[in-house]
Amino acid sequence: MESTCLCKAVAVKIDDDELFTRPRGHLCHCLNCRKTSGSAFGSNLLIEESKVTITGQEHLKNYEDKDTNSGNTVTRSFCGTCGNPITSKTAAYPGMVVLKMGIFPQIPRPEAESFTVHRQEWGQPYKGAEQYKIKRGGEKLQ
User: Fold this and answer.
1) What strands lie across the sheet with 2-4, from one edge to the other?
2) Is the pLDDT of residue 142 over 80?
3) What is the maximum alpha-carbon separation in the chain?
4) Global pTM?
5) What φ, ψ does residue 34 adopt, rounded to 5°?
6) Residue 28 is inside which H or E element, if any?
7) What is the 8-class DSSP label of residue 138?
8) Rounded to whole angstroms, how far apart are CA atoms 89 and 66?
């Protein structure tokens, strides 16, 4: 699957035959993901860097986000021309990259929701997705 940022300066290609064979993505309700997505939650995909090709990297700008709920610094990359969020990276997931799925025409069914304690009160849990109070893999919401 391949797509571009809004101005088409940056292209992202995912080379993964199993991308849509099972739930893969995750929805994040932390304030920082909400801010960078401009929405009620971020739609993300944590995937091996080796399965992702980014062209137009010279157009990317980076922001070192140190004020995170998880306590981990997150490097957020976005197109320097149109501002479209592209990736996030953190030392918490070596060899992995978080793709911002809003740029793609199709989004994998989410397998999890994180920072659900920050979900908007009108929001509902996504049916079938694991619910984590804070970060993915941590304490589950009961």
Assistant:
1) 2-4, 11-14, 52-55
2) no
3) 44
4) 0.91
5) -65, -40
6) strand 25-28
7) S
8) 12
